[in-house]
Amino acid sequence: MMFAVKMTRNMISENYDVIRPALNCVTIYFVWMVVHYASVHIYSNVCAPLSIRGFIASAFLVPSPHCEALGWIIYNGSLNSRAMWVMFGCYISTKLELRRWV
Q1: Would you say 62 and 47 are in contact if contact means Cβ atoms under 8 Å apart?
Q2: Domain map of the chain by residue range?
């Protein structure tokens, strides 16, 4: 058990230059996903309530500043999510060791 812990610590300390940027990217991605998730639920409850009254009120609520801001967060959160996956794929592909099959 102790050998595995020491081996893991050595592996992390040897690869710290690789792990640190990846950890920063994961943190940014996690924050964006939490904000996006919360914004979607707030938007659906505040700006487009699920009722006849909400349907009528949504015509007046959607252009309001807080609903515009939530819409911006939702839109850019989905774009950032897509971009983060592309960035993650590029990062992982640069770290993979490619071998030739002869």
Answers
A1: yes
A2: 31-90
